[in-house]
Amino acid sequence: MPLIDKINTGPFGVNTYIVPLEGSKVFLVDPAACDYSGDKFVISSFLESRHLEPEAIVLTHGHFDHIAGLPHLVSCYPGIRIYIHPADAPLVGRNSEAGQLRSLGAMGFTEFLPYVSNLPEPTDYLDDGERILGGWKVFHTPGHTPGSCCLYSEKEKVLLSGDTVFYHSWGRTDLPGGDESVMSASLERIYTIIPKDTLVFSGHDATGFDLSENLP
């Protein structure tokens, strides 16, 4: 399996992934590095030190702790593509402040709002079942947010699960847009369709575990 690099970024320690494509090309998943957490340059410095060229940023969902790195990366790499599911698209772009305030207010963390206001606009929208960026298949897995998605590589047997699947757990559903019954249906779909020996790379905490370890 090609090496997927992981960097913990942002105030909540998001697992940001650098996923290889051909040659020096890569795509980034959930960049959260920003001034608030004192790690604004950690992703761009990592890419530069290894002479990697990011083609795109994929956002597994639009929560503030997964997207705060967008402004800096877009300034470093003009024209980089930004993928997100349409249901979470209001959480990025020029009008991101209104959507982000709902979750930040619910968590009592409104001091972070300036870091997720007036964000770069998405360029591409994730669609369930489509293949992007070298063949990664999109699974729309709502529940944590309406637009949460996972990416699956059949070739590498890897699932980039965002905040849908965690080690022996799953993403919270108590924030605005979350839904426990919808999450249950998404998890059932993942556990039914994805092979059990797939390695799961989650949005937080433990990563690289076998999907079979999460089966009910």
Describe what this molecule looks like in 3D.
With 216 residues, this protein is of the alpha/beta class. It has helices at residues 42-49, 64-67, 70-76, 96-107, 180-193, and strands spanning 5-9, 14-20, 25-29, 53-58, 81-84, 124-125, 131-132, 136-140, 149-153, 158-162, 165-166, 169-170, 199-202, 209-210. The mean pLDDT is 95.
Short description, anyone?
This protein is of the alpha/beta class. The protein has 5 helices and 14 strands. 21% of the residues lie in helices and 26% in strands.
What descriptors fit this protein?
216 residues; alpha/beta; 6-stranded mixed β-sheet; 14 strands; globular
State the order of secondary-structure elements, H for helix, E for strand: EEEHEHHEHEEEEEEEHEE
Straight-line distance between termini: 27 Å
Strand arrangement across the biggest beta sheet: 1-2-3-4-5-6
- Rg over C-alpha atoms, rounded to the nearest angstrom: 16 Å
Q: Whole-number average pLDDT?
A: 95
* Beta-strand percent range: 25-35%
Number of helices: 5
* Main beta-sheet annotation: 6 strands, mixed
